[in-house]
Amino acid sequence: MTHPHDQLAQQVTTALRNADPDTLITTLHHHHLIAGTPAQHISNIRPILAAAHRDHLSLLRPPADFHPWLHGILASNIDGTPARPNTRNSRVSTLRALYKALRRLGLLTGDPLVDFQNAAAERADDPLPTTQDLERLLKASHKDPALHAAILLLWHHALPIAVLLRLKWSAFTPQDGTLLRGDLITPLTPQTEAALTRLHQRAGYDPLYADTHGRTEHLRMFPYDTQDALRLRLRQVTRDADLPFTPPGLIRRAALRDHPGSPQTLGYTRDKDYRKALRHAQALADATQTP
After folding, report:
1. How buried is residue 256: exposed, middle or buried, by Cβ count under 10 Å (0-12/13-18/19+)?
2. Which of 32-41, 72-81, 135-144 has the highest mean pLDDT?
């Protein structure tokens, strides 16, 4: 009879071999071998697993040129745009957590990431997109209901990207225009509520028949499986509209500057944290303002 520990190791090995990040991370998280948000880890590790599968490279038995290979993979997003330093470091952080879990399972003895150099972290004062550019992006995205709603959740409500990607319609209450985000119920801005309602109706909701909401609750709000997929769609829209490419993370960072609203609107459970973030956002806006 197979020992449970050996069975777990076999499941993890199979998921690695099949480049299946969902099974890999979910299994490790279920057995308390990897901490943090599974959705974020899945998003981070997906491009690494896909590239390893494509290049016939074993992450369990990495070759001598593993570090140069990994730097090359981390340098770009799936759409060919350069990956931001913090994105690269986030992906490496997940890979480090994965290797730690593999060592605990006895699948590795050493650490393949010893001496691996992280990218220099982005500065907190990196310039944010202008309000005018974001307004133009919203206008350009109007023909794409999913992207339009996603941009509004990022910009008006600073919704974490990992949370946005896994949202289901059960989190949205159309009767009062609120969204459940973690332990907090967020009142949506009228523009965001209208965008979500339009998207909800495309998913099968009819405001004249309340029971149709129940039929959509199990469905995901957005069609993006990864942050790269969302980023790719943004790039396509900005390119077609001749606008500067703005990654989702920067759209979210502009929320406090342009739509301070209330603590609940932006997902803060403590007023003190909200006020601190608001002061930081204002200082950032002042420091990066064009004379």
Report:
1. buried
2. 135-144
**Confidence class for position 45, pLDDT limits 50, 70, 90:** very high
0.90 exceeded by pTM:
no
88-92's contacts with Cβ under 8 Å and 24+ in sequence apart are 88/118, 88/119, 89/118, 89/119, 89/121, 90/40, 90/44, 91/44, 91/45, 91/47, 91/48, 92/116, 92/118
Helix (H, G, I), strand (E, B) or coil at 32: coil
**Type and span of the H or E element at 180:** strand 178-181
Contacts 24+ apart (CB under 8 A), 214-220: 216/169, 217/168, 217/169, 217/170, 218/168, 218/169, 218/170, 219/168, 219/169, 220/166, 220/167, 220/168, 220/169
In this prediction, residue 3 carries a pLDDT of 44
Number of H helices, E strands in the chain: 14, 3
| Residue at 158: amino acid letter | A
The CATH class, in words, for 131-288 is mainly alpha
Question: Of 228, 154, 236, 239, whose CA–CA distance to 189 is shortest?
Answer: 154
